[in-house]
Amino acid sequence: MIEKIRNIFAIPELRRKILFTLGILVIVRLGSQVPIPGINPDALRQTMESLNDTFFGLFNLFTGGAFGQAAIFGLGIMPYISVSIVKKHCKMQLFLLMQPQVINCPPPVSLMPLAWVEFLPH
Prior knowledge:
Distance between the termini: 62 Å
Largest sheet: none
């Protein structure tokens, strides 16, 4: 086992990627423990306890408790996911604006629901 780990770190590119990943993990874990300056921790704790059974409690669960501590990295990966979804929809809208003929043409058979395919002319 130790020999396999030693072999992994013998390859320079693989060693660089593993050390980079471990470094990012350390930075994120430290950032999720550092509270935002100017926040009253006692008032925040009381507020989060009262909101424990709501959406904010669930959000705090998904962030590993970092949201309830008002940590610097308290939002985790959720902003990235939201931005990627918005970006995908904006690209689709931009495509439809640039290609108006796509709106009026029927979808390919592979994208039609199965009920529609049965009624296609043969």
